[in-house]
């Protein structure tokens, strides 16, 4: 089996495992992880969150705002980047990148409209948000805004944010 296929299989397995773990709890409103795991566009994000040990955190009370890169956004990174980040020895780097995509509190696009802000992320660094013409976060464009979860809000972005 080639390495790329093995990594894609690992990503798919992580997504299936998280979705299966969430299934018994679906009698309540879905949380951020439930939504990401059930959406076919976030398999890499779910695998990364799982590898970094952040599933319980993002299933927690929150609220959180997550700028969620799609699988296509992860695929646009230089070849080998995702595979390297998913290695156990790189968990600290992976965690720093993932927590750079999370802002404490639930912030919807209407709260960002017309504003330019610098907002502290969960990893302690700031992201620059521009809501004057749509919404951008650093170099990423929000392609789908305001996916409401029981513990926050998800904004889909078209590239991975790197601290």
Describe this protein with a few key phrases.
single chain; 163 residues; alpha+beta; FAS1 domain; seven-stranded mixed β-sheet; globular; disordered N terminus
Account of the protein in words:
It is built from 8 helices and 7 strands. A hairpin with a 2-residue loop joins β6 (140-149) and β7 (152-157). The chain is α+β, with helices and mostly antiparallel strands and 163 residues long. The protein has helices at 3-22, 32-38, 43-51, 55-58, 71-75, 81-85, 91-99, 109-112; strands spanning 64-69, 102-104, 116-120, 126-130, 136-137, 140-149, 152-157. The protein has a single domain, classed as FAS1 domain, CATH 2.30.180. It starts with a helix and ends in a 6-residue tail after the last strand.
Fraction of residues in H or I helices: 25-40%
Helix/sheet category = alpha+beta
What do the pLDDT scores average to? 88
Q: Would you identify the CATH H-level superfamily? A: FAS1 domain
What count of helical segments does DSSP give?
8
Q: How is the largest sheet built, in terms of strand order? A: 2-1-7-6-5-4-3
Radius of gyration: 15 Å
- The CATH architecture category equals Roll
Main sheet overview: 7 strands, mixed
- Give the terminus-to-terminus CA distance: 33 Å
């Amino acid at each position: 089996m080639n390495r790329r296929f093995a990594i894609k299989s690992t990503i798919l397995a992580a997504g299936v495992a998280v979705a299966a773990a969430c299934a018994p709890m679906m009698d309540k409103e879905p949380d951020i992880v439930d939504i990401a795991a059930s959406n076919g566009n976030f398999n890499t994000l779910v695998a990364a969150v799982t590898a970094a040990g952040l599933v319980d955190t993002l299933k927690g009370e929150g609220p959180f705002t997550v700028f969620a890169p799609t699988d296509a956004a992860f695929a646009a990174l230089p070849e080998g980047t995702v595979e390297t980040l998913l290695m156990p020895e790189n968990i600290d780097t992976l965690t720093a990148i993932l927590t750079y995509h999370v802002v404490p509190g639930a912030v919807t696009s209407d709260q960002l409209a017309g504003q330019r802000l610098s907002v502290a992320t969960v990893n302690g660094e700031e992201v620059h948000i521009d809501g004057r013409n749509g919404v951008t976060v650093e170099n990423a464009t929000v392609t789908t805004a305001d996916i409401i979860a029981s513990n926050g809000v998800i904004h889909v972005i078209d590239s991975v944010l790197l601290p």
